[in-house]
Amino acid sequence: MDEWDDPVPVTQNSTSSDGGRSFSRGRGFSAHSNENGSANDNGWGEDRGRGGGGGGFGGRERRGRGGGRGGGRSEGWDNNDNGNSGGGGGWGDENNEDGGSRRGRGGRGGGRGGRGRGGGGRNDDSWGGNQKSEDSWGGGGGDDSEPRENNWGGGDSNGNRGGGRGRGGGRGGRGGGRGGRDGGGDGETNWNSGEGGDEAEQPKREIYVPPEPTMDEDELFSSGNTSGLNFGKYDDIAVEVSGENVPKPITNFEQSGLRKLLLDNVLKSGYTKPTPVQKNAIPMIMNGRDVMACAQTGSGKTAAFLLPIIHCLLDQPTELIFDGESCQPQAIIVSPTRELCIQIFEEARKFSFNSIIKVAKAYGGTSVGYQRKHVVNGCHILVATPGRMHDFVKRGSISFASARFVVLDEADRMLDMGFLPAMEEMMTHDTMVATGERQTLMFSATFPEEIQHLAAKFLNNYIFVAVGIVGSACSDVEQIFFQVDKFKKREKLLEILREDSERTLVFVETKRNADFLATFLSENNFISTSIHGDRLQREREEALNDFKRGSKNILVATAVAARGLDIKNVKHVINYDLPKSIDEYVHRIGRTGRVGNRGKATSFYDSSQDGAIASQLSRILSQSGQNVPDWLQHGGGGTYSSSAFGGRDIRGDDFAQSRNVEEPTDDW
């Protein structure tokens, strides 16, 4: 095994639904039942036999032997549910409890547990206990009705049921052993296979090496949306520009000053004329300015920064520094999600096609050694997610000493509390070129004022560009709302899909629900797949590619697919669960109606859950010229904050200039 690689768990059939229906290799759902015997590790599976094992879920494999040795019925279901017993242990993402069977002699327990008597015993090394759990190994025998967090094992939640010293189960952990008749004992075994442990039942490990990027020109340029019927309307969108000595916008690609090779690749990519954000940002970047740009979803922001960056790297070349152990990229582009990282990488390859520019990507869930090899052998442009980039910098594989451009795509997300520490560490790293000596570019569809304040400290004399009503939804997306109780959403979804299921993206709030809903749709003859953060990277890429190619018409997704993804011909976005943030709503529905194409977004509104954003939804509908239902106008529960959108430069009117992109003023 490469010393750079940290194996990740893999399962033969990655996600599952209840009833033992398994989700096979990231490529859709199919029915599969387990009865009268040992359970299959592939499903949530209801085990109707003696000693059935637990079922896997959520892209992981449940290897505990639980499920009750004493006959009777045990069920290997339990993700995110508190207070369930039965079904023995095993590896389960977002498990709140995974107690052993209470029928017969108690479950054999699943997985590594802490040292403890029942659930109330001593926990020496924080692996045991009964706190609420995510990514935990299932508990031992007994009724484990209390949730546990970030711990291994389990046992009796009250610490007073059963009490026999039993053998540890699963991987031979310290606890969760086979206890007394009703409860979980304080069984003790060796860390590895020990008494009751089974080395052969450990989860398989996989180092994922993604497919090599295509070198076929036709295939490379076939992805992405092309201009739609409403593309001409972009000319009417007002643009507000703030800053000093702002360069004039371009009116077409031919007179933009871009190199001929770039113009050829732009044409192959299906671009006929620049969008408003491209007309303004391209000359700004080519003139060496820092930029903070806000533009609607699907408005061509990626090309707005890639084209001038590649032009400058070709037009003013500097030596590419690398030695096989480390590399100094000249342009670093950081994105919040792996899928967006891959997409930007492919776009950079398009625009730099047939040039000397080398592009590399670095993102989590894949072989570290494989990606490191591509990076340290030299790259002009590095597209990365924060975690993997941090790892490479820490290991000395990446230095920022030659950085000419630093780009934060989906910058509002990159500078929120989740990613801010990583971004601050990158921007202030010992090897990072100082602000003012590099160009820093930030692009997003939403830019709240508080994020602008954070961003400003990384920028130098920057230009702020706001295209249209910043933070508003694209007017090419028809927005439809239905009042739906949460228990009636599934039937409403089927009703809508029976009318039209062409290339539909369904958003849910939880990872568990993504798998469950995709299974439900497949059982109702709608070929579906799912994508979320708990799936293995291989499975995520397969699911997204299946949806892009059209072999799966429906993709059920969490927020991992909400930002930036440019999937060709997405006709319909359905918010099965509305997000908690209005900005997230804007990003979600922006997966359709891109580059002048028409799209439709349907949202299920549950007043008991969604009242907090009712007034902001009303505002979004009004801003995009669409009908606001009376019940939504009076839905209440939330208040609108102007800072939620960040539609103006925080530096005030002294910097502001309004322009129509087709009629620039003579002052520039």
TrEMBL record:
Ranges where the Helicase C-terminal domain occurs: 489-636
InterPro entries linked to this entry: DEAD/DEAH_box_helicase_dom, Helicase_ATP-bd, Helicase_C-like, P-loop_NTPase, RNA-helicase_DEAD-box_CS, RNA_helicase_DEAD_Q_motif
Helicase ATP-binding domain sequence ranges: 282-465
Keyword annotations from UniProtKB, A to Z: ATP-binding, Helicase, Hydrolase, Nucleotide-binding
Compositionally biased region (Basic and acidic residues): 648-662
The keyword Hydrolase is assigned to this record: yes
Catalyzed chemical reaction(s): ATP + H2O = ADP + phosphate + H(+)
Highest taxon of source: Eukaryota
GO MF, any single term: ATP binding
Name recorded for this polypeptide: RNA helicase
EC number: 3.6.4.13
UniProt feature, compositional bias: Gly residues: 107-121, 152-178
Positions with biased composition (Polar residues): 31-41
Compositional bias ranges of the Low complexity kind: 14-30
Ranges that cross the membrane: none
Family: Belongs to the DEAD box helicase family.
Intervals of motif Q motif: 251-279
Organism: Photinus pyralis
Enzyme class: hydrolase
Coiled coil: none
Region of interest called Disordered, as start-end residue ranges on this chain: 1-204, 642-668
Domain DEAD-box RNA helicase Q residue range list: 251-279
GO biological process: regulatory ncRNA-mediated gene silencing
